[in-house]
């Protein structure tokens, strides 16, 4: 099975890892990724609660909305983190960290 990831576009930013593993992507989550993750989850819980008021199923509706938001928020944060590592999103912090880890200079 070919697991090579190819894109229609070339990365616009320096590539830190062309095919990052799951643990590296999750470990690369920024504060903004966690903020977006928790915001999407919180909004989904609220929408689930509000949509369950009229039929009288607030609890189950809130839990379902929260689970959907949790999964959606995680996928959004994962996409942003992986995009930075693969060079598709601005990644100055990741590039600086990879150069510092290798002991090289940025310029």
From TrEMBL:
NADH-ubiquinone oxidoreductase 21kDa subunit N-terminal domain boundaries: 11-89
Any single GO CC term annotated in Swiss-Prot or TrEMBL for this entry: respiratory chain complex I
Pfam families given in the database record: NADH-u_ox-rdase
The organism's place on the tree of life at top rank: Eukaryota
Protein name: BnaC07g33700D protein
Source species of the chain: Brassica napus
Taxonomic lineage: Eukaryota, Viridiplantae, Streptophyta, Embryophyta, Tracheophyta
């Amino acid at each position: 099975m070919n697991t090579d990831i190819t894109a229609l576009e070339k990365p616009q930013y320096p590539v830190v890892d062309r095919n990052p593993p799951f643990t590296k992507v999750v470990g690369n989550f920024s504060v903004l990724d966690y903020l977006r993750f928790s915001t999407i989850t919180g909004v989904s819980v609220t929408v689930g609660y509000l949509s369950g008021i009229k039929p009288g199923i607030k609890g189950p509706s809130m839990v379902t909305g929260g689970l959907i938001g949790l999964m959606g928020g995680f996928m959004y944060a994962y996409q942003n983190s992986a995009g930075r590592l693969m060079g598709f999103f601005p990644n100055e912090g990741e590039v600086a960290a990879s150069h510092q880890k290798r002991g090289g200079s940025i310029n």
